[in-house]
Design brief:
The strands form three sheets. Strands 3-4-5-8 form a four-stranded antiparallel sheet. The longest helix is centred in the N-terminal third of the chain and has 15 residues, at 3-17. The protein is built from two helices and ten strands; from the N terminus they run αβββββαβββββ. By secondary structure, the chain is mainly beta.
Amino acid sequence: MKIVPVAAVAAFVMAGLSSGVAHAESAPGCGTVPQIGKTAHIGWEAGAQWASVKQFKGCGKNWAYVYVWDSYHNRGGDYTVSAAILTSGGTKGYRKGSNRRQEVWSAGTDTVSVCTQAQGSLYDNPEYAHFANTDKRC
């Protein structure tokens, strides 16, 4: 009898994990916020993925979030990442992390009434940056 409930719970958890939407993360000064839209990935044309870019909504604000994957971080080289919210009126809430900081949140932006995208960038060379934008959410 105990196997059925465990299997049911496992199926429910796996369905939630494969949905492409984060269950909850904690935005600075806001607490737990739900992800909106799909996760974008910063990487290279050959399919390598180095970081995730997500957009969240909570506390009456939109937030961009970038996380550098361990596989890239553990290479040991210098890099910085930034996060921002994009609107038709320009870039909002831009924040850039310090050298080798694995995660960065944008500032919370008062943009829930307009269409937005999260943008993340990874700078691993002073002359070149890698970018990714999430899908537009209105």
